[in-house]
User: What shape does this take?
Amino acid sequence: MRTISAALLTSLLVATALTPVGADDMTHQRALSVAKEPHNWLLHHGNYEGWRFSSLKDINTDTVKNLRPVFTVALGGYESGGRYKHGNLQATPIVENGMMYVTDGWGSVYAIDVSNGRKASIKWKFDPGTDRAWAGDVACCGVNNRGVALWKDKVISVSLDGRLFSLDKATGEMVWERKVADPAVAETLTLAPLVIRDIAIVGVAGGEYGIRGWIDGTDLNTGKQVWRTYTIPGPGEPGHETWKDGKERYKHGGGSVWVTATYDPETDTFYQGIGNAGPDWDPEYRPGDNKWAASVLALDPTTGKIKWGYQYTPNDPYDYDEVSEHPIINARVSGENRKLVVHVARNGFYYALDRSSGEFILGKQYVDELNWTTGLDPATGRPLNYNPNTDVQEYRPGSHGSRAKPKSDRLCPSHYGGKNWQPGAYNPELNLLFVASIEGCNEVETVEQKDFVSQGGTVKPRERFAGGAGRPTERLYGSLKALDPTTGETVGRLRLTYPNYSGVLATAGNLVFLGQYDGSFSAHDAKTLQEVWSFNVGTGINAPPITYSVDGKQYVAVLVGSRQPQNLWNYAPELRHTSTASMLYVFGLQ
Assistant: This one.
């Protein structure tokens, strides 16, 4: 039986590699040219550059008043799963010629025919068969899945328990699967794969459980690993010297990856945001700058080789991981044409870097309140109170805990960050970045982290490896902001009732769409940020919207049904009884 199975698998893989490219297949050239297909949404961020912008403009500031729900689709993901009752909807839908590919929180993939315009039908569903109770307990920060990618005539997806799948786009039948991550040591997969040519790039989640982060490339023709690059460098690798504990603690140093990277075809480089160091709040356990946690890495997609890295918060004591997208923008800065990779960071600053060298160009505070540092060094971008002569950083005294004084004072922005994982959007016609942020402050407390030997000699993935906790001290709120990427200046702002975890979409109709925890799905004038349309779906929204068109008619789609976390209830008790759903909403002009 094993011989027959191996032979069948080999023949399938050979057939995959040799299958002629069809007219509707997702090729690398097509991925490079998505702007020619504005009716589709073919890549996770809309394009490789990470803009989440659509040139469709039938829905605009004049017509948006006529936007109505045209159909909804109920998804699964409600099955009991350990300490989580359901999967959290965070996926970005992919749309190709009237067919939508989307995942629920547990990683089931749905192919939904949306070509009718009045109703939709599920053509197939692929369930990865994840052991929900077990995987839910192992997952560090919720049961999540952020979507799929297209390659040739296949759909590429991941499951929480660490598997990567190639699915037949027409039928949903699995062609192959590869075990990429190991949940037995708290490694999980939650991000949408990034496909560059024939390689699927994913990264590992689990930074709060003592993993050592990595980024991984799979040859989609064979289902085999091509390369793996660790985000926390080992002996002999550049940056290893920044782990000065002398106890090999880099082996569980965090640096997780759970948001899809951006890609620059001109230099053949992808830019991956990297998560927090582990443990989160006990930097004395991990003296040194702790590269490449809280950083961006520029990598070669063919080999996985690191070209350069830039660290935002060395020896980070705040849990300011920087996994979110790094958009690619060409702009004039101080009278000079620059090729930028930019980042709206969780630590409260906007950064612009040279995307070829990683050189710091400029940085600017964008959150309403920031107190952990007095600013950024204009030459290096490092926090002004960074001390190169100490191995454990003390940024503003009292802004973080220590073993001597565990509880911090008021920390701004809160440890949730100014912008967490939720994606922003860039409108190239207005040259503006739109950011849905989290505003306000909280406190963090340090608890001395015990190493694995002291815990009994083995890795215990169900026990947190955080070295403390963050706690709300006041009601957080949100903002929708417009930033000038050439200066970092905030040129527009609108206060939101709730901190935002859905992200935004920008369109040539001069609109910005976003969802909120109370179920509000709204459109805003891109020039004024004022709300021009809103519809309440009755349950929280924790996923970014997209837009597409069929037969010349434009639609806006978003997944709704976020899990209301306990920390939200602490400062928004009116949401305590909000019921969770698992739905796709699609809106169109009436």
Remarks:
- The domain at 2-589 is CATH 2.140.10.10 (Methanol Dehydrogenase; Chain A).
- The two ends are 57 Å apart (CA to CA).
